[in-house]
Design goal:
The chain is α/β, with parallel strands linked by helices. The protein has eleven helices and twelve strands. A hairpin with a 2-residue loop joins β9 and β10.
């Protein structure tokens, strides 16, 4: 036997499982790999600061599911949603929609792919053109993509207005003639009119009264069931996210710190920041609510221009130790379908 043949066979290295390649996410419709988005910030003549809005995000969203994205204001949630739909270009990284890299796609191919991806905006007062009638607002995507015109477009607009709970006879009215909840239904109708596959809902209920919030959330759940939609539901209210989401991703200062099923996030959060968010959600039982002790964070959220080194949460974390300020914890698998970026998961 030759010396070459006698050499032991080297085992094939196992690929690292990331949140973008999570095997528990069956048939991922959208994959995000190491996505980065920086914005230029003020600086001197010889320095140029940047805002680390999104800083190395990995995610996978299965076809037909709702992934909730939650975090404090300013953590990068909305920026992530806008980069996904290409309203903002990515600084680096990849967004794969049906295995098509949107960050590298241009021209007509990108335009046709974007027909399947729509967005519901946060503010129904600002996202609708006040000089256009409701019928024109909802029909605009049909005309932009050459899907329908004339009588056919009018029929489609009336159909989708019925679906979202609006009177189709209101097509000639203007946005100022509607309430906040009705305006958000108009925004949903505009997103739905092209029969998309994937919708980014950027805090769609945060500007509405609590009673109206429930109506909009229930409407979105009904639409998902009826049209087999996939949602990225962005919000800062964890109680709303828990109600509508199959899985939840928690974001802090540009990074995802935990991902898991909604029930697991509620019952046993792994990251201290998730635990803090959970402790702030009111409990309906007054006796239980009175006995609870919410976890109060020290200090303010750091600036995204100069985020803390290593773990970005260590400056406010109740259980932070020296390693937290020296070594950045990767977002790694802790159990099936559960990922956390913490050196001491589940210890708070």
């Amino acid at each position: 036997m030759s010396a070459e043949a006698a050499q032991p066979t080297q085992p094939t290295p196992q690929a690292t499982i990331t949140a973008a390649t999570d095997p528990t996410v069956k048939k991922p419709l959208l994959r995000i790999e190491n996505l980065v988005k920086y914005f230029p910030a003020g600086g001197g003549l010889f320095t140029r600061n940047v805002v680390h809005a999104v800083d190395g995000v990995d995610l996978a969203i299965a076809s037909g599911e709702t992934l909730g994205l939650v975090g404090e204001s300013g953590c990068g949630k909305s920026t992530l949603g806008r980069v996904i739909v290409r309203l903002q270009p990515a600084t680096s990284g990849h967004v794969y929609f049906k295995d098509v890299d949107l960050t590298a796609t241009r021209g007509e191919k990108l335009r046709r792919t974007r027909q399947q991806i729509q967005m519901i905006f946060q503010d129904p007062y600002a996202s609708l053109n006040p000089r256009m009638t409701v019928g024109d607002i909802v029909a605009e995507p049909l005309k932009n993509f050459g899907v329908a015109r004339g009588r056919k477009a009018e029929q489609r607009v009336q159909e989708v207005m019925r679906v979202v709970g609006l009177n189709p006879n209101f097509v000639n009215r203007y946005p100022h003639e509607f309430s906040g909840g009705q305006r958000q239904r108009i925004g949903i109708a505009r997103a739905l009119v092209l029969n998309p596959t994937f919708i980014v809902a950027d805090e769609p209920v945060s500007a509405l009264d609590v009673s109206i919030q429930a109506q909009i959330v229930n409407l979105m759940e009904d639409l998902q069931s009826k049209f087999d939609l996939t949602f990225l539901f962005i919000a800062h209210d964890l109680s709303v996210v828990r109600h509508i989401s199959d899985r939840i991703a928690v974001m802090y200062l540009g990074k995802i710190v935990e991902i898991g099923p909604g029930n697991a996030i509620r019952d046993k959060p792994l990251h201290p920041y998730t635990k803090v968010l959970e402790s702030s959600v009111p409990v309906p039982d007054p006796d239980l609510e009175a006995a609870r002790k919410p976890i109060l964070l020290k200090g303010e959220i750091p600036s995204p221009v100069s985020p803390p080194a290593a773990c970005r949460f260590h400056t406010r974390c109740p259980i932070a130790q020296q390693i937290c300020s020296e070594v950045e914890p990767p977002l790694e698998k802790k159990a099936d379908g559960r990922f956390a970026a913490c050196h001491f998961p589940g210890q708070l």
